[in-house]
């Protein structure tokens, strides 16, 4: 299916979405959001940021957390989800600028956290195939002007290589530091042994049987030197092909949202709850053949899968996801392969219409967080290569190859950065341990010196 977009149901059931539509319009106006931002959910919370305690509502859209105070002078707080650096279980949010936000839900605490954390960890994604497939290269090109900025791509590659070199040098310095710490630690072991001998000598000097005690005192065994800490090297292992896995929020019968993993196989789907610290988690499995239709609900980011099973809950699966387009696309394609006919896909009022039924969506979403799979682009499937010829094609391939190399280097830099950070933390802990031992030994030496001075004076 190349360029198909399902139509909204404009005339029917629009009243069911009226409240959500009105709420989204108000939030867009209050927080200056774009027309594509819709309120996914709203919670009553207390804003405890900056030692305050302000009651209000927290609106969650596809890309923002928006707080609006309830009483007194209106307070508006808009947090762009992509700017969040960390989020704790207590809903303390830290952004990249160092600001801290703290919200305490007045009800539905667990669901509020589950939704906010999911939106933060797995950002909203959608792909417009019409825009993706357009050839955007400027046709009014002078003879000496390139359509593709290969020079900038080359500069990015050089920058990435320099960054990698700096990270490698930092890593080597940390390795040297760890070796020195190991040597100091070995010296402290020897000092511990000598302190033990000093203790024996002091006791023997005080004794009337000095010569006998020295003669029959067991010699302390010097512990073997510690081997130098081996530098750990992370091995990148090729993983075997796996089913498509998507992190979702599963909407239960009581309307609670719980984290879950959705595994889509060729002919069936498994959903498994992933709530932490829970003794018994829920799971559900159903075949692609049982699916009657897909419904994009009026509440944004919500999907209902209608099943050919009896009972209200058995006959449906409800979920919330930031990558609904990918889920719908995967189910639609599998259904088409099994039955050789289209699966019914319905967009209810207030739902965002998107493209589906195209392998390009599958391949593009494979790069998103929260999705695991083994599908990759091949040169023959690259859309740009279908519209470029001659010198343009050569320039594009050269730039693409350079960019791929840059991405690989940046990926290795990211992995090296993780190792460097861990080694720096380990070194800091080792330095603190060594410093503590040295202080303790210094105190013991001072005490032994005083004891020896007292013996000599006597």
Automatic annotation (TrEMBL):
Which organism does this sequence originate in?
Entamoeba nuttalli
Please list every transmembrane segment annotated in the UniProt record, as residue ranges: none
Protein name in UniProt = GRAM domain-containing protein
Which ranges of the sequence are coiled-coil?
Answer: 150-177
Pfam families, A to Z = GRAM
* InterPro entries tied to this protein: GRAM, PH-like_dom_sf
User: Superkingdom, according to UniProt?
Assistant: Eukaryota
Q: State the UniProt keywords alphabetically.
A: Coiled coil
User: Taking every annotated instance into account, which residue ranges of this chain make up the domain GRAM?
Assistant: 27-89
């Amino acid at each position: 299916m190349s360029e198909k977009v399902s139509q909204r149901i404009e005339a029917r059931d629009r009243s069911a979405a009226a409240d959500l539509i009105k709420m989204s319009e108000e939030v867009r106006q209050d927080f200056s959001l774009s027309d594509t931002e819709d309120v996914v959910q709203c919670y009553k919370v207390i804003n405890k940021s900056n030692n305050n305690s302000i009651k209000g509502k927290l609106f969650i859209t596809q890309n923002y957390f928006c707080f609006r105070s309830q009483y007194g002078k209106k307070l508006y707080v808009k947090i762009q989800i992509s700017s969040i650096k960390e989020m704790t279980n207590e809903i303390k949010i830290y952004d990249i600028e160092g600001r801290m936000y703290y919200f305490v839900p007045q009800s539905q605490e667990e669901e509020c956290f589950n939704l906010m954390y999911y939106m933060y960890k797995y950002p909203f994604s959608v792909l417009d195939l019409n825009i993706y497939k357009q050839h955007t290269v400027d046709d009014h090109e002078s003879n000496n002007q390139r359509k593709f900025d290969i020079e900038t791509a080359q500069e990015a590659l050089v920058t990435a290589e320099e960054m990698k070199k700096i990270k490698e040098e930092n890593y080597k310095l940390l390795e040297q530091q760890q070796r020195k710490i190991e040597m100091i630690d070995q010296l402290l072991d020897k000092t511990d042994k000598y302190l033990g001998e000093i203790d024996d000598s002091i006791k023997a000097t005080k004794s009337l049987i000095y010569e006998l005690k020295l003669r029959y005192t067991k010699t302390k065994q010097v512990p073997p030197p510690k081997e130098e800490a081996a530098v750990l090297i992370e091995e990148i292992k090729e993983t075997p092909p796996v089913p498509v896995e998507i992190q979702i929020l599963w909407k239960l019968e009581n309307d609670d949202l719980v984290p879950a993993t959705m595994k889509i196989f060729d002919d069936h789907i498994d959903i498994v709850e992933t709530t932490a610290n829970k003794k018994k988690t829920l799971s559900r499995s159903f075949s692609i053949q049982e699916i009657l239709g897909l419904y994009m609900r009026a509440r944004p980011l919500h999907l209902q899968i209608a099943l050919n099973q009896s009972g209200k809950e058995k006959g449906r699966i409800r979920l919330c996801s930031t990558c609904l387009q990918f889920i719908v696309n995967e189910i639609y394609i599998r259904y088409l392969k099994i039955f050789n006919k289209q699966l019914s896909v319905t967009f209810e009022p207030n739902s965002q219409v998107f493209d589906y039924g195209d392998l390009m969506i599958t391949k593009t979403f494979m790069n998103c967080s929260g999705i695991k799979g083994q599908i990759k682009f091949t040169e023959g499937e690259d859309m740009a290569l279908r519209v470029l010829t001659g010198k343009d094609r050569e320039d594009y391939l050269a730039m693409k190859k350079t960019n791929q190399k840059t991405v690989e280097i940046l990926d290795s830099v990211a992995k090296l950065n993780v190792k460097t950070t861990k080694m720096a933390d380990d070194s800091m802990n080792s330095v603190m341990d060594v410093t503590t031992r040295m202080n303790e030994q210094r105190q013991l030496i001072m005490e032994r010196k005083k004891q020896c001075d007292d013996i000599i004076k006597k």
